[in-house]
Amino acid sequence: MSEYDRLTAQDSSFLHLERLETPMHVGGLSVFEGAPFCDDDGRFRLADVRELVESRLHLVPRFRKRLMHVPGELGRPIWVDDDRFDISYHVRLTALPAPGTRQQLLTLTERVQAGMLDRSRPLWELWFVEGLEDGNVALIQKTHHALVDGVSAVDVATVLLDFSPEPTLLDAPPWTPQPAPSPEQLLVDSIVERVTEPAEIVRGFRRVLRGPRHALERASQLARSVATFVDRSALAPRTSLNRRVGRNRRLEPVRVSLDEVKTIRQRLGGTVNDVILAGVAGGLARLLESRDELEPGLTLKVMCPVSVRDESEQMQLGNRVSAMFVPLAVGEPDPVKRLEAARAATADLKEREQAVGAAFLSDLSEYAAPTLLGLAARLAHRQPFFNLVVTNVPGPQTPLYCMGGRMLEAYPIVPLTQNTGVVVGILSYCGQLHLGLFADRDTFADLGVLAAGIEDAFAELTKLASDRES
Fold it and tell me: Cβ(278)–Cβ(335) under 8 Å?
């Protein structure tokens, strides 16, 4: 039987989740110094950019692979080489009518991100944008969630970018696409694989649970972790954050000093993530107050993805993500108490290892039939467990370059689900937290209120930290 590069159950779930209203790609908006992208006549060096990207694709082989589905959905899809791969399809150039404003760039990004990727091709696109009023160049990125998670997306970006202004054109080995299996052969191999997997599962559990003491400790740990999902506070309150989403999007970028966040952490307590959650909670309080929904003691639930990728898995694509469901005390008017509540909540969930339980439940899905995975993914669209997603990915604190142009800003974009109208993607880069607030356009005409509220919440925490030092 042939060995296939098969999607994991978690990767496949993002295909099942995808609808016209809910594209399942992660994305980003970056801004670079523009001059190095242009030749002596001021024309964008598109051919050079494509040559640079193509010279590095052997480092991320799946970027030249497309999906192939098993007939009858009797197995998870596989990745196969795209024999019609065309770099010009994936690396594109567009322009704003000069001088392009910041708002016009955001509007273009919203429209690009709202469309689904073509599943008949490798699932990624890079859109370079010229014509910005300050002479800079923007990059709009789209990569399907089935291909990467947030952490591996940063790894890929690091490969495609440089740590010095001198771009490196790698001596790439020749690439010859391998032929895909016939649908009939793939069907037979998938059925055989499905039938033989249970024996491997049994052997795997025997290894994990070898010895009664180890088995008891492991069972106790998992029971404690999984229990965090089924206690009385598991369900999220229903608010206007969780209305059914449409096909259009809105993006608001926010920047916060990482040094200020670290100062807040040092003087008021908690971790950097706790401070971030407290700042987001302050912004949510402002938003709900403007909507007449803020009540004393209101606690929202935030889903925080947690990477379970170890060092041996760096630069491997696919998803290695678990989650924690963190309560946010948005109804608490005191910002320090909001921070203390976030710190206590995350400490409790870490102590009970909620992310371990989530990873365990996710791993069980590896052995579910693809039709059941599709059903589970559709149910996840109407999940009642969290109000929004906040994902924080650490990025490099040294400058990155593309074609010699320094990257000045980088805002992550996280996909919405059917009843999750807003997400907050966060990337730390060069001493700044770059927050990408991404929302359904129709239900978040007031997304700017959330953005301003988050900025003010961090400013207030910074002042309180300064006062405490004094």
Answer: yes
Residue 292: left if φ>0, alpha if ψ -120 to 50, beta else—which one? left
411 token code pair: 């805002």
> Which position has the token pair 């030249």?
64
CB atoms near residue 47 (< 10 Å)? 10
Cα separation, 38 vs 28, whole angstroms: 22
Q: Is the torsion defined by CA of 35, 39, 42, 43 positive or negative? A: negative
DSSP symbol at 318: B
CA distance 348 to 359: 17
Task: State the pLDDT confidence band at 366, using cuts at 50, 70 and 90.
Answer: very low
Task: Pick the range with the lowest mean pLDDT from 165-169, 193-197, 237-241, 405-409.
Answer: 193-197
Nearest to 114 by CA among 231, 236, 19: 19
Enter the tokens of residue 349.
């969930």
Choice among 25, 144, 145, 434 that is catalytic:
145
User: Tens of pLDDT along 151-185?
Assistant: 445 556 667 889 999 988 888 899 999 999 999 99
pTM (two decimals):
0.83
**Phi, then psi, of 428 in degrees rounded to 5:** -90, 130
Annotated domain spans of the chain: 235-394+411-469
Q: Residue 217 — φ and ψ, nearest 5°?
A: -65, -45
> Is 214 an annotated catalytic residue?
no
Length of the chain, please?
470
Chain segment 24-35, per-residue pLDDT in tens: 999 999 999 999
Q: State how far the Cα of 405 lies from the Cα of 39, in Å rounded to an integer.
A: 13
Tell me the C-alpha distance between 198 and 281, whole Å.
Answer: 45
**DSSP 3-state of 431:** coil
Token readout for 445 is 């005409």
Q: Is 303 helix (H, G, I), strand (E, B) or coil?
A: strand
Taking each helix axis from N to C end, the angle separating 258-268 and 447-469, rounded to the nearest 10 degrees, works out to 50
For domain 235-394+411-469, give the CATH number: 3.30.559.30
